[in-house]
Design brief:
Chain lengths: ~325, ~325
Amino acid sequence: MDAMDIAVAVDCMGGDHGPGVTVPAALRFLQDHPEASVILVGSESAILAELKSGKIPPRVRILPASEVVEMHDPPAAALKNKKDSSMRVAINLVKDGEAQACVSAGNTGALMAISRFVLKMVPGIERPAIITILPTLKGRTYMLDMGANVDCSAEHLLQFAIMGSVLVSSVEKIEKPSVGLLNVGEEEIKGNEVVKRAAELLKGSGLNFIGNVEGDDIFKGTADIVVCDGFVGNVALKTSEGLAHMLATFLREEYGKNLLTRLAGLVSLPVINAFKHRVDPRRYNGASLLGLKGIVIKSHGSADVYSFQFALQRALDEARSGMLNELGKRMQASGQA
Amino acid sequence: MDAMDIAVAVDCMGGDHGPGVTVPAALRFLQDHPEASVILVGSESAILAELKSGKIPPRVRILPASEVVEMHDPPAAALKNKKDSSMRVAINLVKDGEAQACVSAGNTGALMAISRFVLKMVPGIERPAIITILPTLKGRTYMLDMGANVDCSAEHLLQFAIMGSVLVSSVEKIEKPSVGLLNVGEEEIKGNEVVKRAAELLKGSGLNFIGNVEGDDIFKGTADIVVCDGFVGNVALKTSEGLAHMLATFLREEYGKNLLTRLAGLVSLPVINAFKHRVDPRRYNGASLLGLKGIVIKSHGSADVYSFQFALQRALDEARSGMLNELGKRMQASGQA
């Protein structure tokens, strides 16, 4: 697909901040990408209020939606009762081919349920998985599943590995991205039963399977793709967030202790800022819901304008990459579709 | 038990460094604790060589053992074939009541297998679990299981919670330590099947169960004790190690970039050192193998002298606390013994 044709549907009402973040982020995204367009979905008046000039800029279309999926809405209820929600209307645009991807910072469970209902699964994939990008010593690693599936079979883990490989080879242009299976030891005898069986399946999959990797391999960047079930992935990600927060707090406390340490902090400010930029989680915002017949990107609910732009960027990158076609072909070739 | 009576058996041959670390650490430990004694187990000549004076100091006894469990020895083989290993002789001392605890930096699987065979389980506990201490925003949190059990039932998780509670109330003198169940969300409907059932069991357990906690709660210090299966615990711990390593590397790189940043680093040195001390993993060295009829502490294999002392300290703290008696009583009271 030519990049000129790519429209991104934006659920403007989702997330903690709604149009106050999503609309300015979309406008900045358009500045960076003259080849893209956006469809802003949600309350027309709220969206217009964020277009400071009052005029609708080029490459922007507003599509009204009368309802909003709230963060506390049970997914099933959001699916059944909010058919004119900004989230659902944005997903519908992907289904109808009017947008090539959609982005939402809203309720993850509802986004998953509605996407699955509206877009359907790629044949051969039983469950959608959430894939995210993490910074590593070597660059970046893709990790899935990050919480969509808490009870997984070995077959599911294999499907996650296939989806991850197709995504990374398409988007990052790595021909045979390496796949590591998250385990408690590198030896083949280690791990729980599901993981041991998954290793067997992966060995026969034709993927570039490099074997078991351990928790510390994630941030070492040992593999391009780390595969795990959603329970483990979610715990690993949130534990990392908690640790990063604790370390940042302690460092701030130590620099704030007295006049001398505050002075040292001032002198170190350029270093600290460069460091913060390097590991800024906002630059990794935008998790992809893989396995659907359409591209759906989940932004962190608390994303700010800077952060939400990266989720939009991911949508564009994936739409551009032709990943969906590749996944369909890969599943057909494997005889699983 | 009076602290005067406490002897700690030390597997001097275990770990990456053997007697070069374990013996000096034991001597420093004795300096800090005039009430304790140690039994140094292993190659007599190697141990004597580390007692620089050539004389055996007070409160030190050397017990020769002719074999060494290597890091790569399969646990079953170590159990069957190395009956005079320093590890096994140290554990035997605990069984015979000559030592009130033992410490090893050796092969974890072998330590587990031999301890279980020699010491046996506390009645009512089906599997030993590894519990470790982590620094948090509020102080410290105990977490188990850290890798002994990769396939757990809800009943196992309940037993882990009981063991953790007894340990923390005995050692930390917290009457009703809070127990959190590691999950992917705080809501009761979340989680995999085992965790959901474990939550039900915990609610009826009489423990101070505060419900589900998430990965980021570990380092927040939300609960005194975090319970999870060994697969998840191992991944969470190793992921944390990997992240800490990556952040430290990036920070060092940023401070090393040019003359100005190196100067800023120099000015910040006292701050950085205070920060490093606060989160120094060596100060948290020493994981306890819980559920055995004896106290067994596993030190990190790569521990240095400073670090190994903390593992010895943990052995002393646990032996002093009367934790084993408490656990026996608790299991009998629950009718599970």
